[in-house]
């Protein structure tokens, strides 16, 4: 039976993620919660260029116990914004797995997530692509192997992106580097997103590079996370942890 | 007490490795076995620009039980060529650890190494740099995580290097790729050595790149290997294994 | 007054080019010639998500003297396929400038283009992006400056792209390199398009790299070409020539 | 007849440049002016590992009219430091061509160079490699072609290199970029030297990259400059100008 998904958020990234979900054979998109419900489209399926009627839009106010009984889902995928965390209480009552890709929670909001994770499995990762999480884990391992190497992070994005990328800051944190000194941000043209971690030794240089081609990578990551999360015991998880467990399982078999 | 090293080979790479060994505080270079003993230099120390007399040159014919009793070492580092394998019997009698960085052993020679490794620990790795071995291991792990990714290997070297690099072929083998189809060799100018493994997914690309700055990287790798090998039980080891064990130890602590 | 454009071709690339043209203040899209006129859309404007009615679709059979009198344009931009060359006779009668981005003309078709260019200015370039043409010209210049350098071309594209890229082959030809030996094609995942030309000298390496982010780059290039072509005397032009003239004009002022 | 060279400076870079000069068939190294004349070596030839006696060392104090008459040269190559500019008066009296690769002249010293260039041809370029100067010129041209592109400069060097590279600052100046905002300096391990100029457009990115393999590149550049300078009328020249003239000559023949 296919996994029933409730998607929160239908902005620039959310709608691309929706496209990926409806392409995935093992999943079905049950409904999409979005901020502004227009009269133009009642169904996400239409907004995504499909003829048939499925994945109706619903507003946050209408998400309640009754709605969830009538429109049951196995997993929530959240690409909206930090406000949606207030809906999580509803989901946890039904023990629905939650994948959150939101990056800027306040401390109070993180506390809510923590609390609800006692009742349902929640996976929270600000950057949910497989590639970036692999990059992070592989870099941490490399740093342990060659602790004396110098490390710099270079990230490149489109000209209008403000501030250093959240992903680069997270990598710096994981590698215990001062982001003000070791994160180098390049802003030019329309670069979708590139992260490079450079390890310098006296006689050799190692580079780990991740390049985003388009935002659909978030969809692939979220689908991977959702499949992994289904059936897990309540608790708070992250993509890094998921990959770390896979690393351990694989490395012992090599 | 510092580790006493016997070095075999004093060619282009061997002499750079010797320089690294004499810079290493925890090691001392006891002697150097080389093919042509000239009358110009009796000591490797002089050939390396040092004033004091140490690390005398010795020819392969003179390496025997008597010599090794008079000139005891804890570890042999071999950067000569496949012929030197015939000396290993002498070393194994004294349970001396052996680090071999030779790439082109015949099957008979590999058999000798295998036999002698019952008496002493032998670490054999054709490419002994930390960076390349990390690259290999990290790629294998990444392939397990994203088995559906397309993989290509690009290696760049100086114009006169013939054939695909042995390291690239080894990476292909480890990743179960047909080297004829997936190893791309670039030969231009004076590039010391660059290996890049490209993992392509529909929406993202990951690149792992290793660039050699100069051959002293082999010295660093051999020193690392020698320190690790000392005190190990007899057996056949490789740099990949050493790193794999380090990976496992680290990943479980993260 | 804005430049009136007739666009031929409305496939994957053509429709993105159309989007770029309607965003360009100095241009207006008069009509679009496409293969299959469906009853769903009468106007390209609708297919591009605009409410107003402009840029009607027309089929190739209906392009005739009468149509062009009723629907006059200043420039034709052709992103369809080699068959459309048979329409050029109609355009040249009216001295309409033609920008052709078609890559696979037969010799007969090239002859037609040649003939018609006696009556109207035609710019023909298989790869019409500014970046690629700059790359080509800069490489040719670099080769003249350092003729002894080794040169290799590396091109990366999505896994399903067959054969070496036409652009890479053209670069090889311009640099007088045997494409079978010096064009290296990497096919992985979803890479949009990357071309790198590596110049190797004994002590230094120079790389010129062009990365496509998306196909709209063709639109920018075609718009640049169309503006340049307007008012030129009849004749056959190419993007390389346009850039070469700009190079000369600029270099003498530096 | 081969070109007679007087070399000033025999430090880390100077001695490598000397090696390149003695390898060059069309040149002969007449003498080398160095700061500290030791009793160990009377001849640069010995310090460079040659058996024969040539290229005697001379101290700056001994460079006078008499010395230059006895030891005539066609061209001076200066890799010492800004102090040596005080010797230029001697050279200009004999109309000897001067190639200066010094980077940190004071305004007074630049004035001296200017004055002496009325009597002899002087080529002054802080970074004298062909590659870097080509990079600079090609970037300036590209900026003229696509003036709306965003530009960033990334330079990578060994960990101990202080401050932004002089070359990167010069590139920024030539491209009219604020170096504080647009030069990004990466310091890790033992990277010899890498400069990358990134041009970002909405739909495409162009990168020009120069990688130094070792310092002998300065020798190649100085030799190229010296050959070009011989026979020129007195005046002040730069590598950029030399390349610019070559560009113009080539582009008109393409």
Describe this structure in words.
The structure is a homotetramer of 254-residue chains. With 254 residues, chain A is an alpha/beta fold. Chain A has 2 domains: 149 residues, NAD(P)-binding Rossmann-like Domain (Rossmann fold), CATH 3.40.50.720; 82 residues, Dihydrodipicolinate Reductase, domain 2. The first copy, chain A, is 37% helix and 23% strand. Chain A has 10 helices and 11 strands. A 7-stranded parallel β-sheet of chain A has the order 3-2-1-4-5-6-11, sandwiched between helices. Chain A has a 4-stranded mixed β-sheet with strand order 8-7-9-10. The radius of gyration of chain A is 19 Å and the shape is globular. The mean pLDDT of chain A is 93. At the A-B interface, helix 6, strand 10, helix 9 and helix 10 of A face helix 6, strand 10, helix 9 and helix 10 of B. Strand 10 of chain A pairs antiparallel with strand 10 of chain B, so a sheet runs across the interface.
Helices, strands, pairings?
The structure is a homotetramer of 254-residue chains.
Chain A: E1 3-8, H1 12-23, E2 27-33, H2 44-47, E3 57-58, H3 65-70, E4 75-78, H4 88-93, E5 97-100, H5 107-116, E6 121-124, H6 130-145, E7 150-157, H7 166-174, H8 179-182, E8 183-187, E9 194-200, E10 204-212, H9 216-229, E11 235-237, H10 239-251
Parallel strand pairs in A: 1-2, 1-4, 2-3, 4-5, 5-6, 6-11, 7-8
Antiparallel strand pairs in A: 7-9, 9-10
């Amino acid at each position: 039976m296919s996994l029933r998904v409730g998607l929160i958020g239908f902005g620039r990234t959310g709608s691309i993620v929706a496209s990926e979900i409806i392409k995935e054979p093992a999943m079905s998109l049950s409904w999409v919660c979005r901020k502004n419900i227009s009269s133009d489209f009642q169904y996400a399926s239409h907004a995504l260029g499909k003829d048939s009627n499925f994945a109706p839009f619903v507003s946050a106010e209408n998400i309640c116990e009754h709605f969830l009984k009538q429109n049951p889902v196995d997993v929530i995928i959240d690409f909206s914004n930090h406000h949606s965390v207030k809906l999580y209480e509803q989901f946890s009552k039904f023990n629905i797995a939650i994948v959150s890709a939101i990056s800027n929670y306040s401390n109070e909001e993180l506390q809510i997530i923590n609390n609800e994770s006692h009742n349902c499995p929640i996976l929270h990762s600000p950057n949910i692509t497989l590639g970036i999480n692999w990059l992070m884990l592989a870099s941490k391992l490399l740093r342990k192997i060659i602790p004396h190497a110098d490390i710099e992070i270079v990230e490149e994005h489109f000209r209008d992106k403000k501030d250093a990328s959240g992903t680069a800051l997270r990598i710096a944190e994981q590698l215990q580097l001062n982001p003000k000194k070791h994160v180098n941000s390049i802003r030019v043209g329309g670069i979708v997103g590139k992260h490079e971690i450079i390890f310098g030794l006296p006689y050799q240089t190692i580079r780990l590079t991740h390049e985003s081609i388009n935002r659909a990578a978030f969809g692939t990551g979220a689908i991977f996370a959702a499949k992994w999360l289904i059936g897990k015991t309540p608790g708070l998880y992250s993509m890094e942890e998921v990959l770390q467990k896979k690393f351990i399982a694989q490395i012992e078999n090599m």
